[in-house]
């Protein structure tokens, strides 16, 4: 836990609205007179390359890893791995560009941009700031819904697995996912009261460990399945026409691009993660780039292993959720462990993604109604001797309502695979590619029509085409799901 949490200091994001000197004086310490503060007057950041890597891994190795076997199944042994490698390179490259935008000007002493929107505001015009904010927070809302759906699927899988084991393979074992979505929502209401990003490192590290756990189990089961099959399934071009129609083949291939994009997406919270890194030297950008290299390399290896081994095990019948492809039978206990690890991971990943949205709304409310005690007052709640929790009624109310609404929407639209593809599609180009590229061009003063400028614009255009195509494929999938859809039933 950070020093901020240990000392029971005031809400980190509430201080964002205060001038550095005011923030220091509020704690009774003259600005610059204590080692407890950074150059901007905020409480000293304690993040390292390893905590940053854990945040990224928690965000990246999410439920998206489970759909990669299906995605490779649509593209085949040639295009599937190639597309995955391309997305990993693009993610790393644009993340490196974005990390250079954390400080405006000098990378060691320049003005800090605390959020993705702050970075856009410092480099681009007002309209682009508004578009960025809308897309970023819409994507975060979508991720919250997607993670709620994915967690409920894993909890239902545990329930059905135990039911089959107890009552026999012929038992219907029908399970409604709605109660499990509600359970997940209740847990998130409590965890959402953690005031800010800097205080969830422990949850992020736990979630990262869980992601390795279920990915490893999925990989091991895939290897065992390949051995049982007596060989590798699948084809060079993916699912064949005949198994599906030609049009379905096109739509599913496009949706696979969206699934892979979603599996790599974390740029929307990169600046917020970078803002937890301790002050230079070295610069926060250098630390963030090292964390990005580590994280993207690790996740790509896991993605390749899980996606390719899942496709090798199931071939054209690779499921949208890898773990459900192994059925609900023996080793049922191992599948239960994997699904439980998914749930714990998603509990943490939900917080990693949602904290920037929470902070944005709370800072906006503080600026709009600075004299409202409901919004600004914090109540001291004793936890242990010498430690207190600062309860803010606005934070309690609005964050709880957000979780409730996202849970209800999840109950209305339980389409895991198509939701994953659509989220990946709409968020990939603007947030992972376009804004980082445009900000980098402005910050580094890249001359128009220079070789570097043309290459960056070509990268952006190619990713835009992929985004539009992926979104179309995912929408087609959602339309297909709606034909047999019944609200609040699963």
Automatic annotation (TrEMBL):
Q: Name one GO biological process term.
A: amino acid transport
One Pfam family name is Aa_trans
Kindly list the residue ranges recorded as spanning the membrane. Answer: 49-70, 77-98, 134-158, 200-224, 291-312, 332-353, 396-416, 422-442, 454-479
Q: Which organism is it from?
A: Canna indica
| Family label | Belongs to the amino acid/polyamine transporter 2 family. Amino acid/auxin permease (AAAP) (TC 2.A.18.2) subfamily.
Where is this protein found? Cell membrane
Q: Which domain of life is it from?
A: Eukaryota
Q: What is this protein called?
A: Amino acid permease 3
- Gene Ontology CC annotation, any one: plasma membrane
Q: Where is the Amino acid transporter transmembrane domain?
A: 45-479
InterPro entries, A to Z? AA_transpt_TM
Q: Per UniProt, what is one GO molecular function of this protein?
A: symporter activity
Please provide the record's keywords in A-Z order. Answer: Amino-acid transport, Cell membrane, Membrane, Symport, Transmembrane, Transmembrane helix, Transport
């Amino acid at each position: 836990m950070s020093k901020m949490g240990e000392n029971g200091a005031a809400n980190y994001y509430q201080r964002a609205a205060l001038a550095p000197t005011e923030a220091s004086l509020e704690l009774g310490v003259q600005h610059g007179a204590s080692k407890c503060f950074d150059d901007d007057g905020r409480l000293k950041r304690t993040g390292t390359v390893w905590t940053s890597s854990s945040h990224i891994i928690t965000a990246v190795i999410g439920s998206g890893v489970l759909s990669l076997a299906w995605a490779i199944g649509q593209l085949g042994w040639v295009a599937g791995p190639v597309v995955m490698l391309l997305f990993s390179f693009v993610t790393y490259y644009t993340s490196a560009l974005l990390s250079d935008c954390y400080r405006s000007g000098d990378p060691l002493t320049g003005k800090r941009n605390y959020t993705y929107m702050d970075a856009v505001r410092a480099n681009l015009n007002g309209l682009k700031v508004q578009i960025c904010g809308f897309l970023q927070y819409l994507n975060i809302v979508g991720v919250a819904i997607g993670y709620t759906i994915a967690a409920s699927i894993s909890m239902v899988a545990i329930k059905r697995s135990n039911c089959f084991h107890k009552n026999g393979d012929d038992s219907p074992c029908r399970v409604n996912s709605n109660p499990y979505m509600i359970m997940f929502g209740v847990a998130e209401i409590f965890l959402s009261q953690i005031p800010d990003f800097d205080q969830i490192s422990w949850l992020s590290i736990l979630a990262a460990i869980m992601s390795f756990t279920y990915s490893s189990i999925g990989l091991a089961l895939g290897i065992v399945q390949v051995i049982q099959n007596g060989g590798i399934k699948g084809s060079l071009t993916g699912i064949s026409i005949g198994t599906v129609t030609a049009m379905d083949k096109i739509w599913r291939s496009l949706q696979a691009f969206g699934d892979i994009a979603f599996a790599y997406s974390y740029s929307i919270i990169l600046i917020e993660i970078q803002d937890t890194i301790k002050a230079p030297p070295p610069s926060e950008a250098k630390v963030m780039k090292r964390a990005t290299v580590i994280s993207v390399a690790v996740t790509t290896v896991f993605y390749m292993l899980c996606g390719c081994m899942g496709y090798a095990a199931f071939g054209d019948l690779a499921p949208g959720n890898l773990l459900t492809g192994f059925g609900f039978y023996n080793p049922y206990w191992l599948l239960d462990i994997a699904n439980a690890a998914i749930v714990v991971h998603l509990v943490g990943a939900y917080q990693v993604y949602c904290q920037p949205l929470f902070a944005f709304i709370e800072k906006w409310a503080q600026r709009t109604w600075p004299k409202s005690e409901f919004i600004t007052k914090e109540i001291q709640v004793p936890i242990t001797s010498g430690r207190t929790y600062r309860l803010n009624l606005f934070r309690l109310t609005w964050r709880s309502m957000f979780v409730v609404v996202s849970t209800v929407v999840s109950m209305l639209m339980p389409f895991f695979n198509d939701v994953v593809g659509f989220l990946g599609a709409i968020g990939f180009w603007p947030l992972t590619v376009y804004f980082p590229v445009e900000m980098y061009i402005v910050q580094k003063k890249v001359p128009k029509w220079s070789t570097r400028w043309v290459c960056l614009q070509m990268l952006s255009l190619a990713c835009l085409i992929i985004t539009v195509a992926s979104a179309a494929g995912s929408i087609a999938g959602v339309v297909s799901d709606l034909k047999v859809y019944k609200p609040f039933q699963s």
